[in-house]
Design goal:
globular, alpha/beta, single chain, eight-stranded mixed beta sheet, BirA Bifunctional Protein, domain 2
Length: about 270
């Protein structure tokens, strides 16, 4: 049987609105059957707060603080909670439904992608990264949900020594799905926390403590600080070993570029 074609796009550091528009464009094209399975690796050219596609911005985000600190707000096309993209490596995986090597249902697809992330992190040098299952959830999950993505680990996300290292979220259409993942290289929990709203002072204080205590970064784990390029290399190797395919470096098609322009106009 012929191997499926996978496209690899390495974009480096980009504007936040552009990052979200590109991922959405690839998903739309793939859903139409006009784009192959695609792994896209990128970073953020300046601190940017992203919120989940159904998250209540007025309730969870302090827009005045964001404007004061010159931090733009973008809405992801995937779910989840608010995340400050700053010292971070990000991947997005878009694949048709069905796709060889990836189960058709949400939970098992999440699991398959998480295995690729775990292998990639092991190549980076992380010891014993583990997938969070139904019996392993970060403390604090039983209380009111924090607006911060990294305050707790959900199913299929990656932790080390009980602390969240890689967050992820997924969005599924009829014919394709998109999974975002964020791996912290370093962190500034006080800045991230200052951009969010809480219902009370006690919730606010608890939120900061959880954000600090439940989060781990690559710089805290590894003996040396790795650059974005080295992490990207390890993720390329990890995903290529996990998903048997013919991998081809590529770029956006004309259709995808047109979709990107349309989505950027929508977000203005």
């Amino acid at each position: 049987m012929k191997n499926p074609i996978w496209r690899l796009i390495e974009d480096g550091h980009c504007d936040g609105r552009l990052n979200m528009a590109i991922d959405r464009a690839i998903l739309t094209a793939c859903d139409r059957g006009q784009a192959p399975a695609t792994l896209r690796l990128y970073g953020w050219d300046k601190p940017t707060l992203s919120i989940g596609y159904s998250q209540n911005e007025l309730m969870d985000v302090d827009r005045e603080q964001c404007e004061r600190r010159n931090i733009p707000i973008v809405r992801r096309f995937t779910g989840g909670r608010a995340l400050l993209h700053q010292h971070e490596f990000t991947y997005s995986l878009v694949a048709p439904i069905p796709q060889p090597g990836i189960p058709g249902n949400l939970a098992e697809a999440f699991c398959a992608v998480s295995k690729a992330v775990i292998l990639s992190l092991e190549k980076v040098g992380v010891v014993d990264p583990e997938m969070v299952g139904k019996d392993k959830r970060t403390p604090g999950m039983g209380r009111k949900r924090s607006p911060a993505c990294f305050s707790a680990s959900n199913h299929w996300e990656i932790s080390v020594k009980g602390k969240k290292l890689a967050g992820s979220a997924q969005r599924r259409l009829n014919g394709a799905f998109l999974q975002h993942g964020s791996i912290l290289l370093d962190k500034d929990p006080e800045l991230a926390h200052s951009l969010l709203r809480y219902t009370s002072e006690s919730e606010k204080n608890r939120g900061l403590k959880e954000l600090i205590s439940n989060t781990l970064t690559l710089n805290e784990i590894l003996p040396i600080n790795l650059g974005w390029e080295k992490v990207a290399q390890c993720f390329v190797e990890g995903f290529q070993e996990t998903f048997s395919a013919t991998w081809k470096p590529g770029s956006l098609s004309l259709l995808e570029k047109e979709l990107v322009r349309n989505y950027l106009e929508e977000s203005e």
